Amino acid sequence: MKVNNQHYRSVWIEGTTVHLIEQNLLPFKFQIFKAKKYTDTCRAIKEMVTRGAGAIGGAAAFAMAQAAYEANADNYKNFINEARNTIESTRPTAYDLFYSVEAVYKAALKSPESAMQKAQELADANAAAGRAIGENGNKILSNNVNILTHCNAGWLAFVDYGSALAPVYVAHEQGKNVFVYADETRPRSQGARLTAWELHNQEIPHAIIADNAAASLMQQGKIDVLITGADRIAANGDVANKIGTLEKAIVAKYYGISFYVTAPISTIDPGLPNGKKINIEERSADEVHYATGPDAENKLHTIRLSNPGSEAINPAFDVTPASLVKGIITEKGIIEPNKKSILALLTT
Ligand code: MRU
Question: Measuring from atom 9 of ligand 1, which residue has the nearest CA?
């Protein structure tokens, strides 16, 4: 997607240096973070310089390729094994990370060049999947549609294009009137900061809403469809996504509003029979207690929002049962969230 008329991916590699859009600074500053070593890329994933399942998968793939180039011939296998463990321990929930690392690790067993080629292939495939999800998802969007989305599953959350916002981009390109309600998505505010920034740049009509406003808007008939991304989808169609998704899905069901999940096939974890065993990341309580934003001179400050001395808990994701999901929009088409459809999708 374009920023100031220049095309960017959220993650890419030049030589063996991984480049990432610094998402912790958006929307206030646009900066590129350069990760020279695979451990720098791991830190960037952990500290959420890059985030979102597809972008994490892309960064992890490049990290694995970087590790292959950093390894010495005499200790090659041990080094890449250790690197794989380190990369996989950065963030536990998004399946794309594990999918990518596995594929690039296998290629790295042949050579660093094979690893790099595979990582680049995966990055390109992730960007292409986003565009195809957009085209498939556009089919469920009529003219004058009001969409609710949660967190950020736009191009920043992917190598390019996105998942939940991809149908919105295609519909807008085709001249449909679309309006997006972006949940702010506390505690890290990916909706208020990143989704809003993307939509604003694309000149797509939208409004940020407080997380607790969504139910009331649904009750008033202001939302036609709920669309989110996914971090991991189990073989029965249960979906792990940003904390708060479950609540929106329950309310949407109550008001008869369709809930579509968008994801590339690389987000489906075929080894997981249902969502119960998905490893839900627990993040620092400080994300609940504090927020960072700019002053009038665009200088960033961190301020406390909560009672000093109180504890906070911060689960980063929740699991929505398949029964609340109308369909999963993938690069290969829209499927029902059940074992049979998912198996058929994975085997075609
Ligand atoms: O913690 P994050 O920002 O990495 O969370 C990921 C997300 O942005 C969402 O859960 C998203 O809907 C799925 S990622 C395409």
Answer: 242
Amino acid at 301: H
Torsion-angle region of residue 162: left (phi > 0), alpha (psi -120 to 50) or beta?
left
Model confidence pLDDT, tens digit, residues 220-265: 999 999 999 999 999 999 999 999 999 999 999 999 999 999 999 9
> What per-residue confidence (pLDDT) applies to 2?
87
Low-confidence stretches of the chain (pLDDT beneath 70): none
- In CATH, what number does 2-130 get? 1.20.120.420
- The CATH class, in words, for 139-346 is alpha beta
All structural domains of the chain with their residue ranges: 2-130, 139-346
Q: Does ligand 1 come within 6 angstroms of the Cβ of 261?
A: no
Separation of 52 CA from ligand 1 center, angstroms? Answer: 4
Supply 334's token pair: 């829209």
The finding on whether 156 has its CB within 6 A of some atom of ligand 1 is no
Closest CA to 249 of 178, 326, 303: 326
Residues for the chain: how many in total? 348
The secondary structure of residue 327, as a DSSP letter, is E
Atom from ligand 1 closest to the CA of residue 48 = 4
